[in-house]
Design goal:
mainly alpha, Globin-like, about 65% helix, about 0% strand, binds protoporphyrin IX containing FE
């Protein structure tokens, strides 16, 4: 858990870094991240394993029991692809709308981030690159966490 806290702190710090790096073009994705994730094939593998891990997670797994795994994998892969600078279009729902009625708290959010870290480890994605993706996801907590 300590390692996770450190990772998440780094992710939040990375948010600052990402902003600094993209000062000239605020919406530009971090250079090289799409390639570091293994392009679309690597991202598809990551999303696949990530969702499988989410489904069997003791704390947040039950929240996903009504979800069609294939559709969630596709949306997550599109989202990670777009965020990392890949040639994709995100066709899923808005983060605020889709999570609005799920009563998600900070612990749930952190649990999901931890699962994603494990999935990225399993894909052999470098720690520094993991933190760049996490830094892009971290600000979404404002739309996703509805129970404070
Ligand atoms: C950084 C954090 C998160 C990100 C980036 C994220 C991203 C997404 C994306 C892209 C979708 C698909 C939307 C669509 O296809 O229209 C989704 C759906 C979903 N998310 Fe999240 N999510 C996050 C956190 C969470 C957390 C913490 C939970 C619950 C513990 C959660 C539960 C769900 C569920 C159950 C769905 C399926 C909704 C449905 O298909 O009806 N998410 N999320």
């Amino acid at each position: 858990m300590k390692i996770f806290s450190l990772c998440f702190a780094l992710a939040l710090a990375g948010t600052q870094l990402a902003h600094a790096q993209t000062a000239a073009a605020p919406d530009a994705p971090p250079p090289g991240l799409y390639a570091a994730l293994g392009e679309k094939a690597g991202i598809d593998r990551l999303a696949d394993d990530f969702v499988e891990r989410l489904l069997r997670h003791p704390r947040i797994g039950p929240q996903f029991k009504e979800v069609k795994p294939a559709a969630l994998k596709e949306s997550l892969a599109e989202q990670f692809c777009v965020l990392s600078g890949g040639p994709c279009t995100y066709q899923g729902a808005d983060m605020l709308d889709v999570h609005a009625d799920m009563d998600i708290n900070k612990g749930d959010f952190n649990a999901l981030v931890e699962v994603l870290q494990r999935a990225m480890d399993a894909q052999g994605i470098a720690f520094s690159q993991q933190n760049r993706l996490l830094a892009l996801l971290a600000p979404m907590h404002r739309d996703i966490i509805t129970v404070r």
